[in-house]
Amino acid sequence: xxxxxxxxxxxxxxxxxxxxxxxxxxxxxxxxxxxxxxxxxxxxxxxxxxxxxxxxxxxxxxxxxxxxxxxxxxxxxxxxxxxxxxxxxxxxxxxxxxxxxxxxxxxxxxxxxxxxxxxxxxxxxxxxxxxxxxxxxxxxxxxxxxxxxxxxxxxxxxxxxxxxxxxxxxxxxxxxxxxxxxxxxxxxxxxxxxxxxxxxxxxxxxxxxxxxxxxxxxxxxxxxxxxxxxxxxxxxxxxxxxxxxxxxxxxxxxxxxxxxxxxxxxxxxxxxxxxxxxxxxxxxxxxxxxxxxx
Length: 294
What we know:
The protein is mainly beta and 294 residues long. It is 11% helix and 43% strand. The chain has two domains: 46-117, Immunoglobulins (Immunoglobulin-like, Sandwich); 136-293, Jelly Rolls. It is built from three helices and 18 strands. The longest helix is centred in the first third of the chain and has 24 residues, at 2-25. Residues 1-18 form the signal peptide.
């Protein structure tokens, strides 16, 4: 009789423990809010210092105490950076530098500072005309390469940017302009690219070739960089500089690189071509197109 009582007591205890554990395991993850693990007083302060010997180059230094990750934005979209980040701003202007510091438990804080760049770097000036697409005159610097006979793909200009739209079904369209380059000089190409939604079987490719673009002919001369769902980017929404969010390899280097060099001086064509099978309903937008001496 005593043994039976002991068994019942043991079963009762086990049942009670299981019930408690079950209730605990069913609690949502956010039930530990305000448990003291989240740092709500993250310090995002940082300093900006010119780098000696480098034109229009600056060192951003974030205070590190309690900071696990630094996000920076110099005006072209937020990116994950280092506590000490070197940036180059070739063009004169006023830039708002934004630093977001992330601490324990996801706590975050943001601090911004204005940086005045008095003069442009004469060796790294932007060779692209109408790079901002702001005015009709800017937009006229670009020539549309007609690749969609039905008009299923087309470019539109608004809000200091250009957007490629496509109804899918492999429709595509391009824009380009001529640029004069110097033999054996290295150049970098970049632009801000964005779309709030992703695509499938879609690309945006950037070329810098000597071949003259021809209407109705898919341009393939010297691919430099781009987006490609086959290579793993643009499947979901994105925003940032193409050199950061892009994944297409440079034809010359075989790596993801935005650096180009030419074997002779003369005219080349900077061409942007985009399209796809299941294209984002929001289009892909480009702005701040750059082609600079390195």
